[in-house]
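#structure-requests
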Amino acid sequence: MGDREHVIVLCSCGRRFIESSFQLSVDYEQNYTLKNPACIAHAMCVFNITVRPPVSLTCIHEIITFGNDSYLLSETYVLEHHDGVSSFYIGFFSFIVVGLIIMTAAVIVTNIRSN
């Protein structure tokens, strides 16, 4: 249970029809589809799930017109388990540290020149 990840998935479309719904296809240990998400806007809905990576997620926009069902599928997103710290965090904090060193050096040089 400790290797499960809490994931929030936002499904959106350019235009949502009155007779339409969003679904989330979850493919991992057991394949299943979630329906009736919490919608924060007319064309954006949120799914709140807990899964164990690797898992693939696909948003499905079901459109019902004149009794016929049509399905628009999003690109499938694969959530994989990564050990260690993200390279984004390493780059971001390195940028902050370098900035602090440059600002500290500028303050020291300014103090030396003013004396």
